Protein 1
Amino acid sequence: MKIIVDAMGGDNAPASNVKGALAAIREQGVEVILVGRGEEILQVLNEEGMKEPPAGMEIVHASEVVEICDNPATAFREKKDSSLTVGLNLLKDGKGDAFVSAGSTGALLAAATLIVKRIKGIRRAAMAPVVPTGNGGAVLIDCGATAECTPEYLLQFAFMGSYYAERVLGRPEPRVGLLNIGAEPSKGTELQQKTYALLQEAGEQGRIHFTGNVEGKEAVYGAVDVIVSDGYSGNIFLKTMEGTGGFLAKQLKAMFKKNLITKLAALLVSGGIRSFKKILDAGEVGGTAFIGISKPVIKAHGSSDDYAIKNAIRQAAKFAASGIIEDITENVEHMRLPVQAKKEEG
Amino acid sequence: MKIIVDAMGGDNAPASNVKGALAAIREQGVEVILVGRGEEILQVLNEEGMKEPPAGMEIVHASEVVEICDNPATAFREKKDSSLTVGLNLLKDGKGDAFVSAGSTGALLAAATLIVKRIKGIRRAAMAPVVPTGNGGAVLIDCGATAECTPEYLLQFAFMGSYYAERVLGRPEPRVGLLNIGAEPSKGTELQQKTYALLQEAGEQGRIHFTGNVEGKEAVYGAVDVIVSDGYSGNIFLKTMEGTGGFLAKQLKAMFKKNLITKLAALLVSGGIRSFKKILDAGEVGGTAFIGISKPVIKAHGSSDDYAIKNAIRQAAKFAASGIIEDITENVEHMRLPVQAKKEEG
């Protein structure tokens, strides 16, 4: 298994990216191609006491870096020698099995869609993070790649999220819920109402395990393995979850730091606080999978440290080994609306 | 100030409703009309050691109760002698200054809209809870009354939420944010993009203090005083916040209950835990204001205890005294889209 890593993307690049890759090679037995400015990558290796890349690591030089200020839609074209463009071309050409980047989300999505391309028949690629929930995490699909969706997109997200939950999270028969504001099929906007009918049909055909609408609260508590949503609502869900978690963690920290007695209390529950932090920590999960692209692409968090990059690489390897792209390819006919399929055939 | 209270709505009715009303009369100096089954209300009073309603309390008998299984849209018509219908007719007829119910949200919304009516020119009434945020709470408008909205509805929500934040929460020049998935005006769906332009215009005219788009995370942290949203997205935001808070509170409880040592830790930070709980507790805030109706209506949480009912009554009195219905009425012309206003004139 060979993972292509964008050495230059993210707030802590290239140091965290290189060190995360080193740890992944050591611990996970994967090979890594680091793409970026060769001299900067080598300097990090030197600081780690290495004169050259260790076994399992390859460096592919790319002189440019896509920055936050670049236009996400066109950055990969304007900067042809960027780590993003070079890395995704390597993926497209089969030089590696998956691509990991902690750089600009929008630029990565546009570049992956246009260089690596979507799976044939898939209308939109989705961003599918694993969000921390009461059942040990759920796949949220989509969390922002496509703000405005059609029922057909959501049908495709449901199938793709289901395969991901089964193959990558190891959930047999994953429960698929439609993010909504009530249980009844009539709830929500026209989008949710129409999607409900499609998901129900797919459920009745035994293609997915659709459990109905899921409200934000129940989703967090862990009622489903896959939360199906348009990108706008999914992003609201994700950011609200992050915000609430972060806000409460801050309150908690203040509570424990108040005085000597509360600091003693913190010591007494230090184990518990660690697992509490772990629940809130995005680094534990790794990155966000781009599902629907014809090869595995993982977006690591912009603030990723070594540990988060290492986890994103593990996730990329798991994604690549899972066979879900084959699942999607083989079943894509069941994810199409008859009318639109006809239109394309005609 | 006289508040009409639905004695029969909610999980703990009529006991909590009667006891909450008693506390409100005692502590807040308001008068209360309790609407519901006279004998059941009297029984609660008897249990509280009273033979008849105390000064400031009046009982209006209504023999029926709207139940969860009733059709929300028609319940108030089918049950003409329900506490809901009788209570709202009292409000309409000016027998009291505001109405509080912990019963079915849908039935209350439908009944308030059709009996008490919307303010002239207001297209949709909105449900506007005060959500716990880093700045001491923000008005979320709408949280589910209207799943599918037009830019004009959202423009009206922005004005109405702003008046509420100013007059009821006491925020001078309240910051109004549009719930969205990024800062740029181009973010979100067509609804957010069009609404952004309207809110910006209203801001430039000095009618509201529009601070731009606000993401879920920043909204929780307290970036704005008013979070403007369609009912679908607002409900996702609210329920995700509640779910995440509840989920983390559960984790925390488990952490403190683990063994004797962790229980000792809980004792040492008991003050902090209390304020932590207070942040998460919906009862502290009281209820959800229905804004856009021509008289003040407050929906208390279905699980309200005495304390929550008492707080909802306080909130109703504050709403009634605030003058925001007059604010809305006087400024409604600025909340209309020119084209549609023209259409109605013609």
Protein 2
Amino acid sequence: MLSRYRFLSSYVSPKARAIVFEKYGNPKDVLRAYTHELPPLTPTTLHIRFLASPINPADINQIEGVYPAKPTFTKELGILPDGEHKELAVGGNEGVAEIIAVGEQIKDLNVGDWVIMGRSGFGTWRTHAATTPNDVIRFNNKEIGLIQAATLSVNPCTAYRMLKDFVTLKKGDFMIQCGANSSVGQSVIQIAKAWGINTINIVRNRPDIENLKTHLKSLGATHIITDQELRNYKTKSLIKEWTGGNIIKLGLNCVGGEVATEMAKFLGQNGTHVTYGAMSRQPFFVPASHLIFKDIKFLGFWMSKWNKTHSREEKGEMLNEVIKLMKFKKESPADIAFEEVLWGNQNESDESLKNKFLSALDKSGAGFHGKKQILKMQT
Amino acid sequence: MLSRYRFLSSYVSPKARAIVFEKYGNPKDVLRAYTHELPPLTPTTLHIRFLASPINPADINQIEGVYPAKPTFTKELGILPDGEHKELAVGGNEGVAEIIAVGEQIKDLNVGDWVIMGRSGFGTWRTHAATTPNDVIRFNNKEIGLIQAATLSVNPCTAYRMLKDFVTLKKGDFMIQCGANSSVGQSVIQIAKAWGINTINIVRNRPDIENLKTHLKSLGATHIITDQELRNYKTKSLIKEWTGGNIIKLGLNCVGGEVATEMAKFLGQNGTHVTYGAMSRQPFFVPASHLIFKDIKFLGFWMSKWNKTHSREEKGEMLNEVIKLMKFKKESPADIAFEEVLWGNQNESDESLKNKFLSALDKSGAGFHGKKQILKMQT
């Protein structure tokens, strides 16, 4: 391995390309591509090179100014070719980067390490960034592919925390989730399977439902039921048969609306109902009897908040644990439907980079449908 | 004071009158009055004489078989004049009794002590009962009137626990409640006042709203707002003005439906929304953003469950604390609207006792409206 000192002797700050905005609004109106030089490395800073960064729904909401986690507006982006010096934010919250230079006072990170961002609002739609150790989390990248790494920090980590932090699930216990074919839902199935937890998975009925069932079974789903079947009066006894009368302790909800209310009925005494999304864009009903007599707790989970309140060490531990549990295969690029967007070529014009980005944004359909668009950096 | 031994030497088990049922159903169909002798006192049992017992809504639901806390069906009611020996339950869950005889091995209870029941399902619509120390909680009756004591165990204790157990409220903090003029709501106001907690009280608009406001103010309410006012767009800034920007940490809900959803909007980050009733008989909506981004917890409270999971010592402590906080005045009979029903005369026929009871039951209107009916025992 190159020593950081040897590396530094000939090191020149790279030119960075980024998708930035200076005020909230419709992404098409406010986003632009931007080229700048990274500030020179200091003894306590890092330079990182992004490898891949997805476009997630929350990123869009953040640019619109309607997301509670705010981006970081800063004048520190670097030396601007045109002398302009406005407060800019870089879009994107998730991605994987490689460390390319390490300030001499930093002892625990090395050139070549793969990192993800330790907080939301960092800005990941860019080729390079200057940062500090506090803002990055290193993880073991031996077992994990590039696209898996780029999409590791939000969905698989959300699944892991929700299975771990709300109730104590032992081998053989049961949990239930709706939106089971969401990215988080699929991670829930894999992590639960690794822990010996039985999953009851609710999905929307669809023409190719058998294909979906086969896919979820292959990930480790114990039982699969459609939202239509859920409303059938026989479902109560069916689920009782599945669980052998065991209580379902945990329900995970990313859909809201009717299915979130229905799901609560199947939770046992003292059960916990955790909401982490609202794909249906509908609130859900809570009947008082669930709260009063069954003592069911209706709680929420937000990965950004967890990240805000936990240390870099805890985050690193989590990442390495999640990588082990998910049984990522380096040769199979991802467990999600995605499309690579080759982006960030040093020689391309800002205009071309912007158009390429906006076209990917279009295809992501605000991220709720279709394949996830992932910028793969060509630097 | 009479020693328990001296007292026992001439003690004869009293004749007991009770409202009983042997199967679930419409109270009018299944309830009957019943006369029996108490089983003789043993070294480890007590005899108690009931002083007053209210008719509560939950009592009716229990007889109908639709309440999760079940009554105690037993063949142990005593020696039956007609030799009949079916499993019977006594109706009623709340009431105050006086100890009239104490088994010689019992050291911590005395003849003359006032007690309430330590569990639900004991049966309080009766003149006398044989029981054990575990089933009764002694309290200090010096500061408290008969009707106050008879209605102490459910509503004031529910208010006390909800203010104490969910979030840590310090002097000057804010809480909000709907159904603020309910029995529990009024206890909440009094206890919060004693602790220096500011209360924002939501009540339904009505023709005599000013009288109600005056009454709640006299109990210690900090602010009062109608459900109509709550929906006004100016309310947000009004409440912000009241709280001086302080976060509202706790919301208590006994109504459900729209007001329960509205109330949640005023809770601050990490707030707790506790449901203990559903007077509107409507479930309420939970928007995902409250759960995910504001981390509001939607929980329930049920006094019966608390009683089941806590010791006699803890219950006794709570009662004495509640009596102090509520500033009961022995000379003013109660803080609730009630009507005394003189009941249990030793010489009255079972038929007359039953009819008197059913007439009170009618007036209680299943307890949701009108004055609370309280059996005052004429023994």
